[in-house]
Design a protein that fits this description.
By secondary structure, the protein is an alpha/beta fold. It has helices at residues 19-27, 70-84, 102-111, 130-143, 160-170, 188-203, 242-249, 254-271, 287-290; strands spanning 5-13, 45-51, 54-60, 88-94, 118-123, 148-151, 213-223, 229-239, 274-283.
């Protein structure tokens, strides 16, 4: 009988390499924000894949980028710290790049400090020619001794089973860390906050989204008149400027209503329960310059 395997797998790569899209595709649930904007993931989000002979715990990390603020620097610290704790590392690269970028080279230098096996994942294989994939494979083989190199399309869910099998080969023997029905360690509050932030990222102007932070102030299970349960949620969208607050609220509250409506629809589908949601917008000037990721939770 084949021995059971379990372990932690860290996803690392440049911003917009497709890490969160890949995590959601592997898990089969939307637990990480996916947008076209860079630096979307802020913390190490865990997603769990339960297979016949293994339990794989994925850790999505913030994209590697040039950090200019205390907050962005803490995002990079989170990313690099996560790979130190991993049993297997997935280095996600956008196959659309014809050469090894400066950011990717920095990641490779960090990988050289680790002992865990590293799998190179060339994402977006459906968007480039086979010749470019082969060219990239040769370039990266010369740069680092990867355990394997696997081209995939996270968006179209191509070659994901091969990737899971390769991860499984490199995991240590061990018992499951989580129950079989769990797919993330995110709390329901955190999932709600991420959904609202995702809608802000998708709907607001470019200068606003990365200056926001969402916090659930209250989340209570209540009864409707017909006896069915619903969640009563109160949350705050924090932003850096009064001008940003006006954009988030919109004329006659139109933008805030749209954000809340889209978010509520997704939250109800995700949690399988009706939701009543009240949203406020508050200004916390320059919070990104002053706070790191852990300190965000102290906002009030």
């Amino acid at each position: 009988m084949e021995q059971f395997k379990s372990g932690f797998v860290s996803l690392i790569g440049r911003t917009n390499a497709g890490k969160s899209t890949l995590l959601n595709a592997l898990i089969g649930e939307n637990i990480a924000i996916v947008t076209s904007k860079p630096q979307t993931t802020r913390t190490a989000i865990k997603g769990i894949v339960n297979r016949t002979n293994s339990q794989i715990i994925f850790m999505d990390t913030p994209g590697i980028h040039r950090a200019k603020t205390k907050f962005n620097q803490s995002m990079l610290t989170t990313a690099y710290h996560t790979i130190q704790d991993a049993d297997v590392i997935l280095f996600i690269v956008d196959a659309g790049y014809a050469k090894i970028s400066e950011d990717s080279q920095k990641i490779i230098e960090k990988l050289k400090e680790q002992n865990s096996p590293v799998i190179l994942v060339l994402n977006k294989m459906d968007e480039v020619k086979k010749e470019q994939i082969l060219h990239l494979m040769d370039l990266y083989r010369q740069a680092y001794p990867f355990a394997s190199i696997i081209p995939i399309s996270a968006k179209k869910k191509k070659n994901l089973e091969n990737l899971l099998e390769e991860i499984e080969k490199n995991l240590p023997n061990g018992q499951p860390y989580y129950d079989q029905d769990e797919y993330t360690d995110q709390t329901e509050r955190q999932l709600v906050e991420e959904v609202v932030r995702e809608k802000c990222l998708k709907l607001l102007n470019d200068e606003v989204p990365h200056g926001i932070y969402v916090k659930v102030e209250e989340m209570k299970l209540k009864k409707m008149k017909n006896g069915k349960d619903f969640y009563d949620i109160q949350l705050v969208i924090y932003c850096e400027r009064n001008s940003h607050k006006g954009i988030i609220i919109g004329k006659n509250g139109s933008m805030l209503k749209k954000i809340a409506s889209y978010a509520r629809e997704k939250i109800e589908a995700m949690l399988g329960i009706k939701v009543n949601m009240r949203v406020w917008v508050k200004v916390s000037e320059d919070w990104k310059k002053k706070l790191n990721v852990d300190q965000m939770n102290q906002l009030s």
